[in-house]
Write a structure and sequence with these properties.
This protein is mainly alpha-helical. 66% of the residues lie in helices and 0% in strands. It has 21 helices and no strands. It starts with a helix and ends in a 37-residue tail after the last helix. Residues 518-530 have a biased composition (Basic and acidic residues). It is a multi-pass membrane protein. Keywords: Cell membrane, Membrane, Transmembrane, Transmembrane helix. It comes from Streptomyces stephensoniae.
């Protein structure tokens, strides 16, 4: 027993088969924080496109589905919890892979504090403690405590995390269904008290408000789908790891589409476009305003929907960042201690607590500057998200390049689709940079070095990543000995990925996701084929 407790960290792996497909699906859904995400963007999107907001949300779904396809096919040949980091490294080399991993890690750091803050605020509103929401010290203290609690759940075990997430998604969906049903009933009954509009199929036309308005709407709408890939980050801990996590990611985007369209139609129909446009600046708190109008004394139902959404996402958003850090450390792209796995819980405890600690520090420091500065940092998220999603889409086509012409299915789903998705996101990235360059478009409205604060934050984070990457390359060059490769033909053509003992998904990175730097097709770290 003493020997087991003191064994080297490298001998301990993530717990295989800890969760199943449904658990992964729920985690993918909760990571997007559906109720919170929708509440935050519905007003601004309506201000741009009016009744065609549901159509814009439908159009925003397209690039996400195409990138989800890339995640699915890349996971089939490389079940590595580092996802984008591992895949881009294998397809395009260590420099691009490291930057992709850095982008994923930093998105978690930037957003966790804000999610926890929203969770605390809406929970307090739901129980009638409105005064506590306005008290910065109390709210921020509770926010930090919530982050610590949810991080502890992540460390204690993936199974416990999945059980908590299952309960939270049930509550969230139930609350949203009640809201949608009551809102639509009152629309058709004519008892809304607003300039309500009966829903029409024409609302699903994304081009109804014109191309310019669609562009602005996409800049807002596409990122409400972000987070579903958390399901794939748990690939080494999921049953049928070669298939289930990727399917969970794909189905997450579809379920999110249905959820967003249902709630968006109900909100636009009930409140009308004028109210939503006038209150676009309220962001997620627009749901707090509508809760009483729709549900009366039962307004706590909608408030708790947003609260449970943010609580769930606080936990699940930590997963991609911590697993990516683990994968990077395992490949010697980061210091080895980030790769430590708890022998007791079989989770990446060190990287998980590091992500939480940095996220708490970021939240508290930026809040001291101003609340608007925190919102500006969240706006900068879109740059990082678009970057690593687009990188993954390109990596999919590059990694499978020898198999794209084997069938129409391969060409469309593995090559063309992911590349088109990457192209759309790259275009949105450029448009976002253009938009953020104007200080007037930021929350704070101030100029940092002549640019908008979100763009400056994005540039600084990128530069810090490049500097750290170069420093680590000079200290430890092992990871940079890896060379681009292609997908293993045997894995590409396999119908079922099995481990050596015949059981699907042993929790180890199949298809070349090992820590020794060997690629999926048998290329060694020096780039020579065996």
């Amino acid at each position: 027993m003493a020997h087991d407790r003191t064994q080297d960290a490298s001998a301990v792996s993530l717990k295989p088969n800890a969760i199943g497909f449904v658990d992964a699906l729920v985690i993918g859904l909760n990571a997007t924080s559906p109720a919170y995400s929708l509440a935050a963007v519905i007003g601004p999107i309506v201000a741009l496109v009016g009744i065609y907001a549901p159509g814009v949300m439908f159009a925003s779904f397209v690039p996400m589905l195409l990138i989800a396809s890339a995640f699915y096919y890349l996971n089939k040949v490389d079940q590595d919890c580092g996802t984008t980091f591992s895949w881009v490294t294998r397809a395009m080399g260590p420099w691009a892979g490291w930057l992709g991993g850095w982008a994923i890690t930093m998105t978690g750091v930037l957003v966790v504090g804000s999610l926890a803050d929203v969770a605390v605020s809406f929970t307090l509103l739901a129980v009638g403690l409105d005064g506590w929401v306005a008290n910065d010290f109390v709210r921020q203290l509770l926010t930090v405590l919530l982050i610590i609690v949810m991080t502890g759940l992540c460390v204690i075990g993936t199974e416990l995390s999945a059980k908590v997430q299952n309960a939270l998604i049930l509550l969230q969906v139930a609350f949203l269904l009640v809201f949608v049903a009551v809102a639509l009933y009152r629309v058709y009954a004519g008892t809304t008290g607003f300039d309500s509009i009966e829903p029409s199929a024409s609302w699903l036309n994304p081009f109804g408000a014109g191309g310019a308005a669609l562009t602005g709407g996409l800049l807002l709408g596409v990122f409400i789908y972000w987070g579903w890939e958390s399901a794939v980050n748990l690939t080494e801990e999921t049953e049928d790891s070669a298939s289930a996590p990727g399917k969970a990611g794909l189905w997450s985007t579809v379920v999110l589409l249905v959820t967003y369209l249902s709630v968006a139609i109900a909100v636009v129909a009930f409140a009308g476009t004028a109210f939503l446009a006038e209150n676009a600046g309220e962001e997620e708190f627009i749901f707090a305003q509508l809760a009483g109008d729709v549900l009366g004394g039962w307004d706590w139902i909608l408030l708790l929907a947003v609260a449970t959404s943010a609580i769930a996402s606080t936990q699940t958003t930590i997963i991609p960042a911590s697993r990516t850090a683990l994968s990077m450390a395992r490949r010697q792209a980061l210091p080895q201690h980030f790769g430590h796995i708890s022998p007791r819980f079989r989770t990446p405890d060190v990287s998980t607590w590091w992500v939480a600690g940095i996220a708490i520090a970021w939240y508290l420091i930026v809040n001291q500057i101003s609340t608007n500065a925190l919102f500006d940092s969240l706006t900068a998220l879109s740059l990082l998200i678009a970057f690593y999603y687009a990188l993954t889409g390109v990596a999919c086509a590059v990694y499978y390049r020898r198999h794209l012409t084997e069938s129409v299915r391969n060409f469309v789903l593995i090559g063309l689709g992911p590349v088109v998705g990457a192209g759309l996101l790259a275009w949105l990235l450029v448009r976002s940079v253009m938009d953020m360059s104007d200080p007037a478009n930021s929350y704070s409205g101030t100029s940092w070095f002549g640019l908008g604060p979100p763009l400056v934050i994005g540039i600084v984070i990128s530069l810090v990543g490049v500097i750290l990457m170069v420093v680590w390359r000079l200290r430890d060059a092992v990871f940079w000995q890896e060379r681009p490769s292609v997908a293993d033909p045997e894995l590409v053509h396999a119908t079922v990925a099995k481990s050596s003992d015949g059981k699907p998904g042993d929790g180890k990175p199949a298809g070349g996701g090992s820590a020794d730097g060997r690629s999926a097709d048998g290329d060694s770290a020096d780039g020579k084929e065996r």
